[in-house]
Design goal:
The chain has one domain: Electron Transport, Fmn-binding Protein, Chain A (Pnp Oxidase, Chain A), CATH 2.30.110.10. It contains 4 helices and 8 strands; from the N terminus they run E-H-E-E-E-E-H-E-E-H-H-E. It has helices spanning 6-14, 54-61, 91-106, 108-118; strands spanning 2-3, 20-25, 31-36, 39-41, 44-50, 64-71, 77-88, 123-137. Strands 1, 2, 3, 4, 5, 6, 7 and 8 form an 8-stranded antiparallel beta sheet that branches. Strand 2 and strand 3 form a beta hairpin.
Length: 141
């Protein structure tokens, strides 16, 4: 097993259509984990969610998050990120990011339609600024 460099970490996170498992904290302290589609802006991780979702409510109350992206094929790898989320409902800011995220997961031909679907009132653009990152290759080696 070895640690990834920052460049390897970025490439790993952006490879293909890997999703992240996002952990937030409910008001009563229980954890909530949900899959998310995401992209990167520098070191920041961006994704969309609805204001009225469990994760949207959790993030409005407490911006601390943890997320994990993994490679399920041997010899296995993962990136684990802890960070702080900020939220924006500004549609002009949200649309280009929602479209970029949609292109990654739905393909270029559907990106605009999905971007417009996800950049509407009631949706949020979430920006996670990492405070701690652990990235490992070759877990089973």
């Amino acid at each position: 097993m070895r640690s990834m460099t920052p460049e390897e970490t970025r490439a790993f996170l952006l490879e293909g259509t890997r999703t992240a498992a996002l952990a937030t904290t409910r008001a009563d302290g229980r954890p909530h984990v949900a899959p998310i589609w995401f992209t990167l802006d520098g070191d920041d991780l961006l994704f969309n969610t609805g204001e009225l979702t469990v994760k949207g409510a959790n993030l409005r109350r407490d911006g601390r998050v943890a997320l994990m992206v993994d490679d399920e094929d041997p010899p296995y790898a993962f990136v684990s990120i802890e960070g702080t989320a900020t939220l924006s409902g500004e549609l002009e800011t949200m649309l280009p990011w929602a479209t970029r995220i949609a292109a990654r997961y739905m393909g270029k031909e559907l990106a605009e339609a999905y971007g417009r679907r996800n950049a509407v009132p009631g949706e949020l653009l979430v920006r996670v600024r990492p405070t701690k990152t652990v990235a490992q290759w070759g877990i089973a080696e």
